[in-house]
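Subject: complex prediction, re-run

Hi both,

The earlier run crashed halfway through, so I resubmitted it with identical inputs.
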Amino acid sequence: MNDAFRMLFDEVKSGVVWAQRDGVVRYANKAAVQLTPCLLGQPLLDPVAARALQDVGSNLLQMPYRFEMRSPEGLADVVRAVVLPAPVGKDLMLVLENASEVTWYRQALKNLVAYMEVEMVEPLGRLGDAVRAIKADPKAALETAGVQTLAEQAQALSKKMHAMETLVQAFGSDDMVRDERILMADLLQETLGACAPLLTQRHVTVKGNGLKQDLAVYGSATWLRRALMEFLAQAVLAAPRGATIELTLEGLGTRVRVRAVNKGIFLSGLDRRRAETPFGAGDKAGQGTPRIGLALARAVVERHGGVVRIDDTHDSVDFVLEMPAGAPAEQAPQLAVEQAQRYALDMARLLARQSPQRGKNTA
Amino acid sequence: MSHRILIVEDQADIRKLIRMTLEFGDFEIQEAVDGESGLAAAANFKPTVMLLDVMMPGQLDGYQVCQRIKQDPDLRHIQVVLLTARGQVSDIEAGQRAGANAYLVKPFSPLELIDRVEALVAEHTAS
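This time it finished cleanly. Structure:
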């Protein structure tokens, strides 16, 4: 394939498969490989997509030919596909778009409502019934309901409400960013300590690389601690049981990067959205998760001028957190004004005191 | 013989104000805009006094530069004055732990600046 086409197709968000008229694949970009399994030199492995290409190639169907298919994961996404003529020659081009992903991100509020329906309506209802029964006949109700069960239900609900409150604060808070000096090495050690129960539960090991480096960032220690906790927790949850995560801290010029690398795993579209979207609410009951995912980490880090993302390489899934190294480049304008005023006030006294002789200087 | 002063400050306006003040004295002045170039300039220029901003972008802030200066046998004689907008006790203590010789809180007075620099230069000459 022409290098210009390859460069273009490697960058687009949609999946692009370039195939011969008999359906044999000549090229597929990364987005396409994530949506449907394919190997170079062979027909597509998805039977619906393979049949569509062959039928179009045999002139049994007209182009553009649109159809729907499913991604290969357990909880499959809906993928919209269209077969088009390739830009050159007589080959075919299959363009894929993840319709579930598009729908998901457009329905943030519906996701939140779905989460509340899935995770909270039933427990709230049970708790409400128990409280009403206690009011009517306290002794009998407590003996039947079980104080321990009630306490556990109340605690679980409280945890979910706290998660929602944290998220609202993260997205709504204008004064999240502080100018506290934070050593990343110390923050990572704290985070690893806090994640220890999760690591033990999932039998996941963290292998550190460069974690003791002397790299500082400025911001809110409280919020960044929470962001890093969520970031690392998501990386651990995405790792298979018994896996090893390589956690790296590195300074890259004006940025500090934390990278958690999971080798040998495939993160499906649904898993990715769950990690990135608050609460990871799905379409059905039981698909919701109580964690607030990378969304909180992303909100906090973006407020501090950084980014949180998931990178796919050919053999690993990397959770990446980057932040500006050191203090923000812009100083508070109020301070600049005060400094200028102080100078103006005292410069006259300095002029009166000092001799007119000026020193040599080099720039 | 004029003494050498190195100004390490990322804000251009502040650098200019400091330079204007120091030009009243008999000093040879050099500037750096961040921690990394400040450390390199200290090694090349070998100043008597280094005016070092604490909060700078990049991988080395003022505390880290000060620590490295004081840990280097060739550079530890440099008198370091930390410049900062944060004057809390904990920040001053952090400056002391980093090995700073003096601490100026912004907004600082040009009189205070020149007095501090001249005192450090005199101390260096005496020793």
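Residues 357-363 of chain A have pLDDT under 50 and may be disordered.

- K.
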